[in-house]
Every structure is written in C-alpha cells, then in structure tokens.
Specification:
249 residues; homodimer; four-stranded parallel sheet; magnesium (chains A, B); 14 strands; Rossmann fold; 33% helix
C-alpha cells in the first residue's frame, strides 16, 4: 500500500468542467484514509489559483497548497537561475507570469500550452533566441489533451518543433520529468517507492512516474486510448479514479 | 570527376533574389563542359515555373525541365497512390496544387513550408487526420533557410511537431530522402556514384546525398554556418559555387 498519492487532474478528477463519476467521493476517501496528497499537473492554460477555484466549484475538498503545477515549477527554476524568459504561454497564464512578460533581452525561452499563440511568428522569435544560445524550458511536453470530445494539441509538439529547428533539447519542468515528481514528493516528505501516481496519460503520468521510482496506475478516463496499458506493463489499471482508490489505496 | 551535377538553388545560385557572385558564370561553365544538370530543391514556397522564371530573370540559362522539386515529387507520389491530401502548404503553391485543394474526405496530410499557415488551427486539423490514420507526406524536412540576413523556420520543425503529436513518421519527398536524389538521377540516367551534389545545407544536401551514394560538396554560402563541414568529413568544401566548379567539376 502506498504512503502518499499523486493525482493528475484533467481527465482524472474532471472532464469538460464536470467531475468524473465517483471522483469527488474518491478524493474524500483518500483524505479520510489520511493519505498525503498532491495534484500534479502540466496544465499551463490555467493558473494554480484558477485550477483550485474550479476544483472547489466542482465539490472537491482540496487546499491550494495541494496543487503542484508545471508553471509553478518553471517559475521557481527561472528565479533560481536568474533567467529572463521569452514567454510563449497561454493568455490565461499571463496574470501568474506578469512580472516575467516582455522583459528586455530575454536569455531563455519558456514554452507552455500557448494554444493559438503557437503561430509562425511566435515560434520564429523563440527559434532565434534558441540559436543564440538561450535554453529551452518547457512546462510539460504532452502530445495532446482531451477536451469536449476532441483531442487538442498540447505543448509537446511545439517543444519538439523548436528542439528540431534549433538543434537543442528542452528542459522539461513538468511530467514526465523525474525532477518534477521528486519535487512534488519532497513537499510531502515521502520516498518515490512509497508513492502512487494515478493518471490518464500513459507517458506523462504513468511511464514518467515509474521512471522516477514511483508506483503508478493508469485510469481509463480522459485522454486514455484503448491499448495504452500495453505500454506500461508494470502499472496498475483501473476504470476510473474511484476504481483506482478501491483497488490500490 | 563526376558525370552529372545536382545543384541546390537557394543559397547556392542566389540569395535574396540576387545571383551569388560567380554563380551565373559557374552554371554556364557546367553547361559548356557538357554536364547533365538538375536543380534539386525542397522549396515549397514557389512553384517550379516561378523558380524558373526567377532564375531566368537573374541571368541563369536553364530550362524548366532541369528543375526537380519536392512539390513535383509530392504530386507524383499522391497521384500514384490515389491520395486526397489535406494541404498545409504556402499560398504561393496553391496554383500548382489547385486540383488538390479542399478535397472532400482527405486521406493524407501534405506539408510544405506553409509559413504563416503553420498555426494552431491548421496543425490541429492535420493532427486529427493523422491520428485517424492518414499518412504524413512532407516536402522536405529542413530546419530553416536563410533569407534577407535572417534564418527562417522551414517545414521541418512542423513536420516533427506533427510526427510527435500523432506518434507517426513522415514520408519525406524531398532532400535528404534517397528516393528524391534517385528520382532526380533517374531523369538523367546517371548512377549515384557518378553524380556530385553541391549544396549549402549540410544535412539536406550533403549528408542526404552521401547517404544516397552520391559525391557531395558543401558551399559556404546561404545557410552554411561555421563548422558545418565537421559533420560531413567525406564531402568537398568550397567557398561558393564558382569555387566548387573550379575544384570538383
């Protein structure tokens, strides 16, 4: 049995702004069982404060401090290394990154899920900084996410585009980076082998967690696609979060 | 000595709409020496007819049939395989591809250097077709090209983005594909080892040609960047086309 639980958010707790069946009750059970809990997310279309507000509105009883997001990890990294990023990020994130926008002489490129800002002009601006030697910092490199019945492009494809264009490699400050999982566990004081990661993304959540030494469980909700479990034979498999909590917690 | 010559165009013959010094005379020398010649280009911002018109305007004495372009190779491939492409291509190419635009129920994705059409909406449309099983056909996968003193993003980064998003691999109908070099040589009736490829792109031109069995020469014009030659130790190196013709033809 794990001593702490990490949960992905979108596609595990909710989908299209509605909690998934049994998810609110499953989170309550985890709390009642006394599990230390972190919600780990690469979402860079929303601030952590907004994520917490939405989860609260859906009935999830969680505190803001239980959210561990890639944008927060990126902010910490940029500050620790004195970097002035060119921010290719979503308009929703501008409030959280207000002090880092439009800095003179940027010396890093920060990429989140910028959605429609991923256009030729913005990508070319980032490319020019990269070939001058700026490091590429990515808030996740997920391929896609699931929303309103469709798969939407996430930041990952554009991170790969910039890596290829400038012949460089991104530092990914989000899942599946082991640093990111370890960062979340550090706030809980729990060792990787004592933690269980539950997610719908076989790469970012499950394989990433396993590589960092955590136990992992794939749920068949959100972006799960038939057959994904074959790629992570050592992981648990559950119909949804409620089923995962029943089986593994 | 080679029996036939393949030349890249942009960055070898001309730059920013002006012939490079000595290039017109070098092409005339190749013709006078009787070399069979093909201009091989991944350019997908211009039709072959427009490329020929521009080269003629600069004083290059070449016939339209001497141009072997990735868009032409793509058209042949699509026709041979009965494919109806979704075309993510440059507006300049729409005339050449008029019969292939806006086809119902596309079953392939064709990507050229679409410049500002590389935006989130167009890429997501391509992504959705790819995950339904449509093949990804790329007119080259160059990282960038050189224009008006700046490096501009080429099709390659966006090909990589789509490959990663949909977990697929593009068929590249342009340099550095061996099929493309062989296609050009086939029109000349010359074996790879008897042909010399002269280009400014160490990957697309030089390494691609070498992999296809051709001799190759890197010129230090166009997109050449200091140190590129270290990546292709078996290739010739010349200051420009005139120097390459002097040394190797």
């Amino acid at each position: 049995m794990p001593k702490a639980i990490l949960l992905d958010i979108s596609g595990v707790l909710y989908e299209d702004a509605r909690p998934l069946p049994g998810a609110v009750e499953a989170v309550r059970q985890l709390r009642d069982k006394g599990y230390p809990l972190r919600l780990v997310t690469n979402t860079s279309r929303l601030t952590a404060a907004e994520i917490h507000r939405q989860l609260s509105g859906m009935g999830f009883g969680l505190s803001p401090g239980q959210i561990f997001s890639a944008p927060q990890a990126a902010r910490r990294y940029l500050a620790a290394h004195g970097l002035r990023p060119y921010c290719l990020i979503h308009p929703n994130l501008e409030e959280e990154f207000a002090d880092l926008l439009d800095l003179p002489q940027p010396n890093a490129v920060l990429v989140g899920d910028a959605e429609s800002r991923f256009d030729y002009a913005h990508l070319e601006r980032a490319f020019h900084l990269l070939i001058e030697g700026a490091p590429l910092i990515a808030m996740g490199d997920n391929r896609y996410f699931h929303s309103r019945g469709a798969l939407r492009l996430d930041a990952g494809p554009f991170v790969r585009a910039l890596e290829y264009a400038a012949d460089t490699q991104a530092l990914v400050l989000g899942k599946p980076s082991a640093d990111f999982f370890n960062g979340a566990l550090h706030t809980l004081g729990v060792a990787p082998q004592d933690a269980l990661m539950i997610g719908d993304d076989v790469e970012g959540d499950v394989l990433g967690a396993q590589k960092a030494g955590l136990q992992a469980c794939l749920v068949r909700t959100g972006k799960y696609r038939e057959g994904d479990e074959a790629r992570a034979p050592g992981a648990g498999l559950a119909a949804d979060l409620a089923d995962a909590v029943r089986r593994y917690c």
